[in-house]
Fold this sequence. Notes:
Blueprint: E1 10-20, E2 36-45, E3 49-54, E4 63-69, E5 74-86, H1 93-98, E6 107-113
Antiparallel strand pairs: 1-2, 1-4, 2-3, 3-6, 4-5, 5-6
Amino acid sequence: MTEKRKYQRFACKIKAKIDYYPGNPDEIDLDISVPKKIKGLIMDASKGGAFVVTNERVTVGSPVRINFTTKKSKYSVVGHIVRIGLLRNNPSEDAVRLEKFADKGDSYMAVEFSEPLETLNEDEL
């Protein structure tokens, strides 16, 4: 299978605070909309996005702001949810790989960042 990702992913376990903006993505203005505050655990990250385990049910296409701290930097990154799913009884490669972390959350979201994090690298995670 051909790798479709633009950036290399790096495994990690980083606590994240997430501002989730439910509703119609075309009508949400991040500057004035009030987000739902949720928590998650970033299981892998790249310059272009992150894979997050959470207990929250979210919707594909919804905008999010992910706040997290690495060994070297603090980030507040805007993006949108491109994929969701449950960790248990899910045959997808990502869900099978992360099912052992279901105690951290029972679902996942894949987030694509609006702008790449050029400074993010494996040594930082």
